[in-house]
Amino acid sequence: MIQEFKYKGETFRVNAHGVAGHEEVFIIHLVDGEEMGEISIDRMTEENDQSAPIEAICQMLCDKLIASDEINCAAPDAGFEWVEGNRIRKVLPSNMGAEAH
Predict the structure, then answer these.
(1) Are residues 48 and 57 in contact, defined by beta-carbon separation less than 8 angstroms?
(2) Domain contains 58
């Protein structure tokens, strides 16, 4: 899955591949469409809550990226929300068949 989302007033893109709970997850901070900072986790090998939904992992990674890159968030109290219409690709689980765009 590659999809944009908003968190704390900032725009991010997630690129996650693998099976739920065992994905490689990459988060990229976007500013005016430009890729700024990046952080990732390999949920197969790094310690994490493998039952956590992808949204929770995105938030956890964003919080780490915000702190490490000292990002001054536009809306620090704003929560997580997917940006509809900006899904680049979503791959259905293997038991559901082919890929959807």
Answers:
(1) yes
(2) yes
Which pair of tokens denotes residue 100? 């959807």
Domain count, the chain: 1
Q: Is residue 68 part of a domain?
A: yes
Over the stretch 27-64, which tens digit does the pLDDT of each residue have?
999 999 999 999 999 999 999 999 999 999 999 999 99
Handedness of CA 66, 50, 16, 41 (dihedral sign): positive
**Model confidence pTM above 0.90:** no
Task: Write down the pLDDT at residue 90.
Answer: 54
Which residue segment(s) compose the domain that 53 sits in?
Answer: 2-83
- How many residues are present in the chain? 101
Asked, for residue 27, whether it belongs to a domain, the answer is yes
